[in-house]
Predict the structure.
Amino acid sequence: MVRNGWTTVLIGLSLLMAGCAEVPQRPSYAITPEAALALVSAQADVKASQNAKYAWTTAIAALNDAEKAAAKGDSAAVIRLSRTASSLAKASIEQTRYPLVQ
Amino acid sequence: MTMKRLIRILSTIGAVAFGASAVAGAEDDRRHFVELYQNRFAGIQLADYVYGALIFSADAKAQYDSMMVMPPWQDVIEQGRKMWETPLKNGNTYASCFPSEGKNVGGNYPYFDDKLGKVVTFEMAINRCRRDNGEAEYKYDDMATMGTLTVYARSLSDGMSVNIKVEGVGAQAAYETGKRFFYSRRGQLNFACANCHVGNAGNRVRNEFLSPVIGQTTHWPLFRGEGDLWTLQRRYVACNALTRAVPFAIGSEEYNNLEYFHSYMSNGLPMHTAVWRK
């Protein structure tokens, strides 16, 4: 009976530890000020293109990827992807001034 | 004559004149397309434009004809019929919401409602019917409800000629907004609807022929591939997404106005729902 009791406790502890091991830990990565600035600019540019109702899916995808990179603390990727998002968003706003197709 | 009265008379004359030119403008646009395509595709009869891109491929048309002998989507149409005939909460039916019990009315949609000050699509009329009879509205992008009901309801107008009207200042403005959308470049690929369906109609994109704008709206909702139900505005969403533009919502004012312009271009052509497309 005692042996069975210890077995139950050990199994319980093992399961508890396994469960704890699976709990995702929120990363506390930080990105550089330059990356943070690029990301904020990209978010503003994409927002402006959405307000103009001319947003491109590619700009939004690049921004989403930049935000994911920020969550991982990858400043280089944040800068690269944010610049792509900004560039595409600005181009989409320029598109509103394109002449109509003849 | 007072100045006030003079202004009122001049305004009335102006509104009448503008209304008349609105009709002329839309009709001029439609005739322009008819002439353009008839010059470019001399052997194709106007009535055949309801087949869309199939008119450019005898093989694809043969597949279509084969599919239409025994359409595999009859169960969906049947489901739509049951929905149409099932009484609403207060006992009324959808048929009671439409003239002629919904028969031969689909070709009149979309129309511009002066009181509402906006374009009303067939789907909006169905939702208005539901709302007026105590039911919750369907979502415009829900093919299992709105799509299925609409595909049956519009089949009641098979053979009816498309008969869109653009009358009055508000209607003209909505038409022009839809027309502007049609000719505006969107998405990273920088394509307007007109790029594919005017200038390049009859040409291929990859392995698919591009359909001409006239005849495009006569047969929606339709079934694509192996039986996937698509409304016209679901197609708009897909087209916009292909150009890498963020699409508008199905049922949005932007797409409703586009549908208004787009549908006018098929005026006079017979409706036929449901059909199959690739």
In short: Chain A touches chain B at residues 50, 53-60, 88, 91-92, 95, 98, 100-101 (CB under 8 Å). Residues 8-21 of chain A have pLDDT under 50 and may be disordered. Residues 29-95 of chain A form one domain.
